[in-house]
């Protein structure tokens, strides 16, 4: 068990996704604004709180998928590790920023619809060796072979 703070936040993408190279990894970054709503007994109605802004960083394959899927104005749900940084700006003002290193990012389907497209997995050397397997055969098997784990079901059916 680690002592890292994990958060799940819901909000709206506040700008374009930017992609940069960090060493040998690609990272996609974007800002999410989350505005809390509370019921005010005094006003007898729901009121908006102050919008909180988070920078979200998505690394490697997640970053590739975020860059291809997320746009400014999209409602999103983000889960990841929270990092808080405080520093003094050039104007002498103390600034606090919140960054989330994303574990997962998705559209908030309570606010609209989304179409999912599965990312193709890279073909491994062993899968290429078995590329002559008939269509529909599990990767790593050829016609007539029973994949491991299916032997019991195949034997019972015979």
From TrEMBL:
Region feature (Disordered): 113-158
Alphabetized GO MF terms: DNA binding
Annotated InterPro entries: NA-bd_OB-fold (IPR012340), Primosome_PriB/ssb (IPR000424), ssDNA-bd (IPR011344)
Start-end of Low complexity biased regions: 143-158
SUPFAM superfamilies the record matches: Nucleic acid-binding proteins
Keyword entries, A-Z: DNA-binding
A Pfam family it matches: SSB
NCBIfam families per record: ssb (TIGR00621)
Name listed for the protein in its UniProt record: Single-stranded DNA-binding protein
Taxonomic path: Bacteria, Bacillati, Actinomycetota, Actinomycetes, Propionibacteriales
